Amino acid sequence: xxxxxxxxxxxxxxxxxxxxxxxxxxxxxxxxxxxxxxxxxxxxxxxxxxxxxxxxxxxxxxxxxxxxxxxxxxxxxxxxxxxxxxxxxxxxxxxxxxxxxxxxxxxxxxxxxxxxxxxxxxxxxxxxxxxxxxxxxxxxxxxxxxxxxxxxxxxxxxxxxxxxxxxxxxxxxxxxxxxxxxxxxxxxxxxxxxxxxxxxxxxxxxxxxxxxxxxxxxxxxxxxxxxxxxxxxxxxxxxxxxxxxxxxxxxxxxxxxxxxxxxxxxxxxxxxxxxxxxxxxxxxxxxxxxxxxxxxxxxxxxxxxxxxxxxxxxxxxxxxxxxxxxxxxxxxxxxxxxxxxxxxxxxxxxxxxxxxxxxxxxxxxxxxxxxxxxxxxxxxxxxxxxxxxxxxxxxxxxxxxxxxxxxxxxxxxxxxxxxxxxxxxxxxxxxxxxxxx
Length: 437
Description:
Number of strands: 0
Mean pLDDT: 84
Shape: globular
Radius of gyration: 21 Å
Helix content: over 70%
CATH superfamily: MFS general substrate transporter like domains
CATH class: Mainly Alpha
Order of helices and strands: HHHHHHHHHHHHHH
CATH topology: Growth Hormone, Chain: A
Structural class: mainly alpha
Oligomer: single chain
Low-confidence stretches: 206-212
Number of domains: 1
Strand content: under 5%
Largest sheet: none
């Protein structure tokens, strides 16, 4: 696949990740600290939408496998989703606040439902396309590495653009709350343009099978793939850790380390840049040693570093968080190996059944990611309430340290459990020859 076309295909990741990172980093603290909404209520609204989003992922994937149109089977989903993202993202950060907390909760829930539906319409078919671009394992790793690079470009955009616009708004005497709707429109526009670039790079693909598919039957067939089941479990655990980490990041850096916007931006940019650069290293490592052991060591290493480092950093000091950003960025790069395993699982299914179900498998995988995020977002809000955090109030030193424990040892333990589950269950199934072979 030519590099320019591959880059255009992967560009969609940058827009989606810019939107998702902005929402994950800012949504909860926007509603609790800017609007005074209870953390449990705000996180519940976000969690409901993420769970809904998770449950429609397999359905969207399965439908796109056999969808027929003059533009192919995947592209109509990409365009429809990108268009839906723009108004729904704006609505999330433009609630009608005169209605009171209960109706703000309803607005947030509905806006999140629309946003996450739009994201699903883009991400599931887009991921399925990556499995269809090549059947070669080495080429696939490079496809996922390119997607990772563009995803991290999106993370940088989702960090820098809001920070710059907030700084400009404050300089002009405006409020943060007034700037957020403008930020949402800009990032929504970025996502729309990125998806259009992706769509224009793709040929007119046709579904592998034109006959209608029974979704329940397809899902039941995927459940027979034992390797995929354990891969799904380990991924579910890992993304719970990722979601809790990103949801609590502002609380940890704002309240525990007392970082300003510039310090936080520096740490996150270093993390994202190292994460992007590490893609090349992980491709080389996988070429040399295979994927199983490197993937396990990457996620377990991330867990151990997270558990022991973050509660020990001195207040206001950058050296420790920067070192953790470098190590964490490298370890997090192993995620591209996990994504490539989903394509491997679809190959196993095809070899056994003769049917192509890439969309279904990536839909179920996205379901796991988003369901875990939904669980984690809800859990984060209730954990904050459980440790004594009160919306709109400066936390005590005890509560600040409890935030650090959630951000460090709790999240780190989840990563370690994920890595061990993958190596001793998922990878073992793949290494074990099937009966009769």
